[in-house]
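Quick check before the chapter quiz. The format below is the same one you will see on the exam, so make sure you can read both the input and the output lines.
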Amino acid sequence: MKVQNEAFVAIDYTLTDDQGNIVDKSEDNSPLGFVWGRGQIIPGLEKALEGMSANESKKVVVAPEDGYGDVNEELFQEIPKDNFPQTDNLTPGQQFQANTPHGPMRFIIHEVGEENIVVNLNHPLAGQNLHFDVKVAEVRQATEEELAPAHHHCGDGSQGCCGH
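Here is the expected output.
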């Protein structure tokens, strides 16, 4: 069977940035599973897998617009320092997670000022080319359970190649 609409697909992958640094990878003997065509992984990678069969491999470069999008300047926000429990060791580049009414939200410290902190709410991989070395571990007809709307193989979309 080939990767096609509503097929269950499991992939082993390594994701690197433009400099070749490993950003993410599937765990050994635990490929990432998803239903193709349901938007459970980034669009550029999903499209590149179409038509592949089990045990096929390829290298794929996904541009920002087909990955996590371009950097949106409106997603840089200034927050008063007193909103942070500890401010002694805050440095640009640190990642945090905040609980919001819409669920957990990750953000990155962009700048630390005297009274305020500028945070970047963009996805950490926004604006970056994504280099995937991917191998299809399995392709089969998805089960009814896997096709059910509430079923997600990759959690809430915030981990791994579904949303890192």
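If your answer matched, good. The two ends are 28 Å apart (CA to CA).
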